[in-house]
Amino acid sequence: MITPIILSGGGGTRLWPLSRTHFPKQYWALVNEETLLQETALRLASTTQFHQPLVICNQEHRFLVAEQLREINLIPSHIVLETESHNTAPAIAIACLLQADPDELLLVLPADHVIQNPEAFHAAVDSARAVAKQGKIVTFGIQPQRAETRYGYIERGTPLNIHNNKRVFEVSRFIEKPDLDTAEMFLTDKNYYWNSGIFLFKTSTMLAELERLHPAILAGCKTAIANAKQDLDFLRLDSKAIVSDASLSIDYAVMEHTPHAVVIPVDMEWSDVGSWDALWAISDKDAEGNAVIGDVITHDVQNSYIRADNQLVSVVGLDNVVVVATDDAILVASKDRVYQIKAVIEQLKLNNRKELNMHSRVYRPWGYYQHIDCGERFQVKRIMVKPDEKTSTQIHYHRSEHWVVVEGIAKVTRGNETLLIHENESVYLPMGMKHRIENPGKIPLHLIEVQSGSYLGEDDIVRIEDAYGRAKLEPNAV
Q: Bridge-partner residues for 261, per DSSP?
């Protein structure tokens, strides 16, 4: 059997304003009812050739990963947390080092890709198994469907015949994102494939190549694991031990230099969903060529992607556009120029805009809170607490709070008191008083929180006790 390694560390900023740093694209349902992470995990669970997956993610996303896998009844072998962002080479090194068997076959795949022909994917992985056992590092090539300048390419070389598999080729070279003329040439030459970023190899093969090519990266990863700490169901790496120049992709670090690289072509209807036009291409469309999601009214609109998450969006007389509306940001762009969203992202970074990183709804392990209104010395939020969950026990030094329960029952700790607050009832929490919300019921608890005071920042929180292990690690996070 094969151990899947799901890499879930990407930021997905090219799908802004939906995808943001604290809630990137792999945690959104973009094509079907499941999120991209869930689709990736379910694709693996649908066949008996895989062990439970190991997931590597940013520590800020740990509860999102755990909750989304729980929703589909999948228990990963590990959820490994990176406390600092690195690239795919250190992540793959970590995955290899965590394996007890040096001959374990690992399938590395990103969490944010779409594969619409899973049967072809499974068949390709199955055929690659014997190839990887022979010490080859297998990558999977996608026949180009268009002259794409935003993908890396693989040029195939000499065909190999390993266990009578005639669809295995040596890798002649990897090509970074080409210009348009070169991409058009690749489209007509059947020796070139899109690089899917999916790899199958034997653990010992990859470790040997990392030791040969980048021993400092491997040594740092060994230290990161040796100093790792178990945090509830998560393994928290000491990412500071990984050398600062280790942010290399596995392509740069190994694949472009190893003599063991081979490519297997596969037609699995793959997309990395890396841009709004790419998402439009794989989405269901109406008779006018429009992909429409949410509360949308169109008139004389063609070939467009229109998404409304929390409000009515009306579009009239446009062709080939992308319109994406969240409750705090709107993107309107020509579909042919959505790649220029990187200029918007740079402006958001330059101006330190919160819309780059966070939505108005912020998810926490106990539920979520959502900003409704704010002004000088006040802020209003909607809070949802899941059944049998609770916030941290905390105090605020600069604000007081009023809670009004609108659905469910709240068990409230207020100082030394414990109160049950029912629907249409409220409770006042003075500044400096210890407090906590708990949902003892079987349905979600919804309440409105009104904050008032001289400072309303999220860092005016001192955690006293926390069921999710955050009091020491993140004492000022809600």
A: 137
